[in-house]
Design a protein that fits this description.
The chain is an alpha/beta fold and 587 residues long. Strand 1, helix 1 (33-44) and strand 2 form a beta-alpha-beta unit. Helix content is 40%, strand content 15%. The longest helix has 18 residues, at 122-139. Helix 3 packs parallel to helix 5 and helix 16 (448-460) runs parallel beside helix 19 (536-553). Residues 196-203 and 579-587 have low confidence and may be disordered. It contains 20 helices and 19 strands. The protein folds into 3 domains: 12-217, no CATH class; 240-291, no CATH class; 297-489 and 531-568, Aldolase class I (TIM Barrel, Alpha-Beta Barrel). Keywords: Iron, Iron-sulfur, Metal-binding, S-adenosyl-L-methionine. This is Radical SAM core domain-containing protein. Its cofactor is [4Fe-4S] cluster.
């Protein structure tokens, strides 16, 4: 009798998403995309992945009244967290991590992966290392950290040197770039060798942080790979967006319901969408049901060179899936998770010539029902292409205009033609696609005249603009402006003790129970003086009225909706920061 070959033992991975502040303010609205991608890759490689989002556990603890926001002060104490990572005793951090991890089969795991999140949240970053240290201390498991927040911390590694030193010294690996293949490689090595991987070695895996002497280094990132995320194992009802769903209602009422759902999911800015979701959740079962919105990405890296952007300094090869694979992924996710709703997070949808036409034809011919939003560029969009996008399910596009000053557009190398932008905004309105804009104010040498060009553009096109996000310029080290500040008319200043100062600002925001839209400006690690111009202090004085003026142009529909939804929830009449001057700063 033939003997069956022995089965290759499966590597067991416990994969955790570190919790952030969002569950203490509003419902979660999206399953964790990056974690879903790495999970899909690990499972494709044969790993047995036990996946948990600890935001769900934090949300339940919060709802049960097990702690107050003010109780979380130790997570915002640089020294307390890093000492704990280094082996010091801290009963609060240790017991809180233990409560978050209750019911997780840590013993069965050969390797533990922890995502430090991607929302630029300090609670995510701090809780990730606390949870990793707790598991190291009590279970002795290898720890691999990842998540987009590590890219942020690496860009400002000089400000967060103490954090990086603790992580590299006490954990097995920290992945600062794309993790879909790197995690598979690291998990395999750790499971086989059962020893710590020394991150300080000369040639670690791609995108893994290391120390050379006292210097924090980042190995070149691995390339992205396009995958459909895998969220199996998560409590998916925790991410439900509550939509109107009355299958027995008249066609007219069903049409009205679908229009409301599209408004809630696509027209409303994020802070208002969250509030609408909370309001709808109170009517679950009364014509309202929970639906997932699927995050998905099919292209990475950008061929443009906007000087403020983190992709401007290093040119990286474009990664783009085929149309067949994209439609197969989206149709498969829609069927598997029973939802037609998607948020796409591409650099921009119309990145490749001919893609719009091919995608739309595949979706329509295959009869796939989709509703989606994405980023886009004005370049090459015609009325016909926008009509095709609307037919394939596009509900909203977000365009990076940044500024409507021809002088500033040239300085930042945006390559936007304002006349073309105005035409596209009008066409979006005609075909039924909501058009959002990204606006940046506070760029070096932005004066009253250049700022007025932007406000004039916004006022002139107000009828065709759904919403515009107001962003205060910050210096990104991994950008042309950050690497060569003098060429852009500025000299940089580093905040002293930026790490703890940011932690303090985040804790004040949390403990004072401000609205979620008041989130501190965690990107502002550097300030700058203009060469032959204004000081950082003078620039700070003028930024507040600029932001206030921009917000005054915003459609009043959103403030009206906020007030109505707030009354339905018996909330205090607090006005979201989007209608005030700006979000909290470091100071």
């Amino acid at each position: 009798m033939a003997i069956a070959p022995a089965r290759k033992p499966t590597t067991r991975v416990l994969f955790l998403v570190a919790p952030g502040e969002q569950p203490m303010f509003t419902r979660m609205n999206l399953p964790p995309f990056g974690t879903g991608i790495v999970t899909a890759s690990l499972r494709d490689s044969g790993c047995d992945v036990d996946l948990h989002d600890l935001n769900s556990d934090l949300w339940r603890m919060w709802r049960a009244g097990e702690f107050t926001k003010a109780d979380l002060r130790p997570f915002y104490d640089e020294r307390a967290v890093l000492d704990y990572v280094g082996g010091a005793r801290n009963d609060f951090l240790d017991s809180f991590a233990d409560r978050l991890l209750a019911g997780k089969d840590i013993e069965a795991a050969q390797v533990v992966g922890i995502s430090a999140g991607g929302d630029f949240s300090f609670l995510e970053m701090q809780s990730a290392v606390v949870i990793g240290a707790h598991i190291k201390r009590h279970y002795g498991k290898p720890i691999v950290l990842g998540g987009n927040n590590l890219d942020y911390l690496m860009q400002f590694h000089d400000a967060f040197h103490s954090w990086w030193t603790a992580v590299i010294t006490h954990f097995d690996a920290a992945v600062t770039g794309p993790g879909e293949d790197v995690f598979v490689d690291l998990v395999g090595k750790l499971a086989r060798e059962r020893t710590q991987l020394p991150m300080a070695r000369p040639a670690p895996s791609p995108g893994v942080a290391r120390l050379l002497g006292d210097t924090v280094l980042r190995s070149p990132d691995a390339a992205h790979r396009i995958l459909a995320p895998d969220f199996d194992g998560l409590r998916l009802d925790d991410y439900h967006n509550f939509v109107r769903d009355r299958p027995t209602a008249s066609p007219r009422k069903q049409e009205a319901d679908e229009m409301w759902n599209r408004m809630q999911l696509y027209q409303f800015p994020a802070y208002l969408s969250w509030l609408a979701n909370e309001t709808n959740a109170q009517q679950a079962g009364q014509g309202v049901s929970g639906k997932l919105v699927m995050p998905y990405v099919f292209n990475y890296n950008c061929p443009y060179n906007c000087a403020f952007c983190t992709e401007s300094l290093e040119r990286v090869k474009l990664v783009h899936a085929t149309v067949d694979d994209i439609v197969e992924d989206m149709a498969g996710l829609s069927s598997k998770y029973q939802t037609p709703y998607f948020y796409l997070f591409n650099n921009y949808f119309n990145l490749v010539n001919g893609f719009v036409e091919e995608f739309a034809s595949r979706v329509v011919l295959n009869g796939v029902e989709l509703h989606w939003s994405d980023c886009a560029r004005f370049n090459s969009l015609t009325y016909e292409r926008l009509a095709l996008m609307a037919e394939s399910g596009c509900r909203k596009l977000t365009f990076g205009l940044e500024t409507a000053s021809t002088k500033m557009l040239k300085i930042i190398d945006k390559r936007v033609k304002l006349a073309e932008a105005e035409r596209v905004l009008g066409w979006c309105k005609e075909v039924g696609i909501w058009a959002d804009l990204e606006i940046i104010t506070g760029l070096p040498h932005e004066d009253e005249d250049t700022f007025a060009e932007t406000t004039d553009f916004l006022e002139r096109n107000a009828a065709n603009i759904n919403y515009f996000n107001v962003n205060r310029y910050f210096v990104a080290p991994k950008s042309l402006m950050g690497a060569k500040p003098e060429a852009y008319g500025m000299t940089l200043r580093k905040f002293p003790d930026a790490y703890q100062r940011l932690l303090d600002a985040n804790y004040r925001w949390l403990a004072e129970d401000l609205e979620f839209s008041y989130k501190p400006q965690n990107f502002r690690v550097y300030e700058f003086d203009e060469i032959d111009g204004r000081s950082a202090e003078q620039l700070a004085d003028v930024i507040v009225p600029k932001i206030a003026k921009l917000n005054a142009i915003q459609s009043t529909d959103f403030s009206d909706a906020w007030r109505v939804l707030s009354m339905r929830q018996d909330r205090a009449g607090r006005t979201p920061a989007r209608f005030n001057n700006e979000t909290m700063s470091m100071a």
